[in-house]
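Tutorial, part two.
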Amino acid sequence: MLLNTILSLTVYLGHQEGVDMTVLTVILKYFQDYQNERDYDSNGNLIRIKIYATNYVRIILTGFCPNNRSNEQGKIDSNCPAINFNGLSNKQRTKLNVKFSKGVIVFTENDIMDSGTIYTESCATKLRRHLYKINLCDIGSCDDLIRWIVKYNINSFTVGGSRRSFSENIVSLTEKFMNCFIPKIHNSLKYNHEFIKQKPISTFYVLGPPGSFSHELAQEICETLNIGIETIKFQSNYNKILESSCNLDNNECILVPIKHDNDFLYDYPHSIPNLY
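Running the prediction step on this input gives:
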């Protein structure tokens, strides 16, 4: 069980014009009068907004962006919470946002997707993330999305959808949907926040050996997000511990987040048996 008295629902955004920026705009407008905290990197760039949505839950807005905080319009606005890593391509950005999320929500206009949205969907499939697709032209209610979030314990998600230059109506359609969804998910969090509790060892990342690019990048990312980690080396019985299965080579390791903002996520990380 989490020791935190404050639980988090994290939204990872790619900050492209269209779905990403519309989702961010609607959330910020809805919670504009709520207490929030803003975190900045060493260069003074905004990387994370924490909104205290209820007495028990904060909504965290963040996400990885391409090199130099860029999008199709040029530069990402300085008021957008975006984490920049030099040399990060659009595809690497998308993959990181999916990798750090438990669920992926894809918005479409009549099921038509641009290449970036198709790639987002493929990342969700390859990384075994829960995927929810919404045709914004044929929706009855946002209640189904809330039921999906509750069913799969989606305590973090990223969004995908066509850019404004590809889909003419994607912004207005997304805005309409989010204006329905945000008040309802907020109401759900007020009366039932149990569904966003993290489960021990339900989130982990398979990496190369210490010193490899994937391992070094993961450490840099976790440091930026203020996430404490444990690195677990190959064990023949690791499948008994992890809730998800994967293929792990002898030279690979598993990175498990155990702390966030200096709070332990689990009762005591070293009490998990057979990790070392």
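The helical segments are 19-30, 90-99, 115-126, 143-151, 170-191, 213-224. In part three we will examine how such features are distributed along the chain.
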